[in-house]
Amino acid sequence: MSQHRSLRSAAKDKKIRSVHNRFERIKELQEKGKWDDKKSVFGLPKVKVEKIKAKKGKVKSAEEAKEGTEEAKKES
Q1: Which end of the chain is less crowded, N or C, counting CB atoms within 10 A of the terminal residue's CB?
Q2: d(CA 42, CA 40)
């Protein structure tokens, strides 16, 4: 029997949200200096959600990897 999709792990279904809730928008506006405590929490301006892309590290060549393992053996 297969597992219902609503019961699956949340980690697999993690996606970037395209909107913030009210608290997150106020926090972001405070960081940018655009929030005043006298303003109403209703009718907040939209806040752009920035997607952060992870940069891939440089891949070591086979020779560099061998040298690194040899050095680790000498140190131990």
Answers
A1: N
A2: 5
Distance CA 9, CA 11 (A): 5
CB atoms within 10 A of CB 67: 12
Task: Give residue-wise pLDDT tens across range 27-71.
Answer: 999 999 988 888 888 888 888 887 777 677 665 566 666 666 666
**Burial class (CB within 10 angstroms; exposed 0-12, middle 13-18, buried 19+) of 20:** middle
Helix (H) or strand (E) holding 70: helix 62-75
What is the spatial distance between Cα 29 and Cα 45, in angstroms, rounded to a whole number? 9
Which pTM value belongs to this model? 0.47
Ordered DSSP codes for 25-69: HHHHHHHHT---TTS-SSSPPP-PPPPPPPPPPPPPPHHHHHHHH
* Token pair listed for 7: 């019961």
